[in-house]
């Protein structure tokens, strides 16, 4: 092959290599700047309509945590005024023997008439319905909370 052809192939390969690197950097940048999936603790109001009056049911605070799916199905944990830690550690309030649960996975904290769920940096995440929790989030009664293979709900 001639020297000219080899030089053209080298330059073409160098251009293709830089195009690939810049494409990877662009994809990573877009992925890192993507919005999170969690619902914030205090959602922003978008409408000017007055909020509906709370019903008697929404004024009630949850009194128990019921495990509806998983190894502890049917277990009822009474709720009080202290936070509840969920995880695999023996010192957790609710101990889940599951490979998909972190040692200290999530915390449920009372806040007035509501309970706030917070993921404690778990590997596999804490889920409310089908949304991953990435910030402290209000957990409403009847809403499904999933940690590993276990699903639970707050009940009144």
UniProtKB/TrEMBL annotation:
The chain crosses the membrane at residues 6-28. InterPro entries: Cell_Proc_Reg/RNA_Proc (IPR050923), FHA_dom (IPR000253), SMAD_FHA_dom_sf (IPR008984). Signal peptide: none annotated. This is Unannotated protein. Keywords: Membrane, Transmembrane, Transmembrane helix. Residues 38-58 are annotated as: Disordered. PROSITE patterns: FHA_DOMAIN. Residues 46-58 have a biased composition (Basic residues). Residues 84-133 form the FHA domain. The lineage of its organism: unclassified sequences, metagenomes, ecological metagenomes.
């Amino acid at each position: 092959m001639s020297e000219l052809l080899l030089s053209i192939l080298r330059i073409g390969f160098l251009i293709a290599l830089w195009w690939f690197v810049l494409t990877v950097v662009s994809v990573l940048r877009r992925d890192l700047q993507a919005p999170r999936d969690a619902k914030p603790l205090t959602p922003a109001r978008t409408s000017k309509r007055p909020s509906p009056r709370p019903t008697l049911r929404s004024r009630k605070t949850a009194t128990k945590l019921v495990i509806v799916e998983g190894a502890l199905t049917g277990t009822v944990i009474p709720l009080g005024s202290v936070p509840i830690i969920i995880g695999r550690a023996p010192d957790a309030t609710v101990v889940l023997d599951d490979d998909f649960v972190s040692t200290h996975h999530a915390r449920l904290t009372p806040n007035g008439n509501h309970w706030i769920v917070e993921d404690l940096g778990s590997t596999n995440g804490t889920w409310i319905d089908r949304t991953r929790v990435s910030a402290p989030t209000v957990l409403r009664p009847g809403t499904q909370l999933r940690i590993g293979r276990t699903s639970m709900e707050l009940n009144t």
